[in-house]
Amino acid sequence: MTPTKTALRLMSERNILTCQVKGCENPAEEAHHCLYGKHKGIKELNMDENLQLVCRACHKYSGGAKTYDNKIDYWYWACEFYGYNRMVRWHNNLPLKVKERGYY
Q1: pLDDT tens column, 36-51
Q2: What pTM value is reported for the model?
Q3: Other C-beta atoms within 10 Å of 75: how many?
Q4: Per the structure, how many domains does the chain have?
Q5: Is 59:76 a contact under the CB 8 Å cutoff?
Q6: Collapsed DSSP state (helix, strand, coil) of residue 52
Q7: Helix (H) or strand (E) holding 69
Q8: Cβ-contact 51, 10 below 8 angstroms
Q9: Is the separation of the CB atoms in 49 and 78 below 8 Å?
Q10: Which end of the chain is more exposed for a tag (fewer CB within 10 A), N or C?
C-alpha cells in the first residue's frame, strides 16, 4: 500500500523508510501518535515530535507500536533526532492533566 502523506513527509525529513518499531523491518506506511494518543482539540499531539513512522501491521494488528517499551524507545530516538531540550520543552508544554514521567 501507499504510505500516507504525513508518513511520506516524515520519511523524507528523517531519511527513514522502514517502520520505527524495534525489530520490525517492514516499510513505513503510517504516522503513529506514539508518546500520546490523539485528543480532540490538542494540536500539539499532531506535532512531529509525537509521530512515529510505522507499518500497518505494527500500527493496527500486532500492537507493537502501542507498547510502553516502544514509547520509551521512540522517546530516546526523538531526543537524539530532535534534541533532548526540544523534546522536554514539547512535553512540558502539552496541555494534558496527566503526563508520562518515564520519558525523562
Answers
A1: 998 888 999 999 999 9
A2: 0.93
A3: 20
A4: 1
A5: no
A6: strand
A7: helix 68-82
A8: yes
A9: yes
A10: N
CB 17 within 8 A of CB 28: yes
Does residue 48 belong to any structural domain of this protein?
yes
Q: Which domain holds residue 29?
A: 5-92
Q: Can you say whether the dihedral through the CA atoms of 76, 46, 57, 64 is positive or negative?
A: positive
Cell digits of residue 99:
503526563
Which contacts (CB < 8 Å, 24+ apart) does range 8-12 have? Answer: 10/48, 10/51, 10/53, 11/53
Alpha carbons 15 and 93: distance in angstroms, whole number? 27
| Tens digits of residue pLDDT in 51-87 | 999 999 999 877 799 999 999 999 999 999 999 999 9
Q: Classify 19 as helix, strand or coil.
A: coil
97 in a structural domain: no
- CB-based contact 3:29 (threshold 8 Å): yes
96, three cell numbers:
494534558
Residue 33 lies in a domain: yes
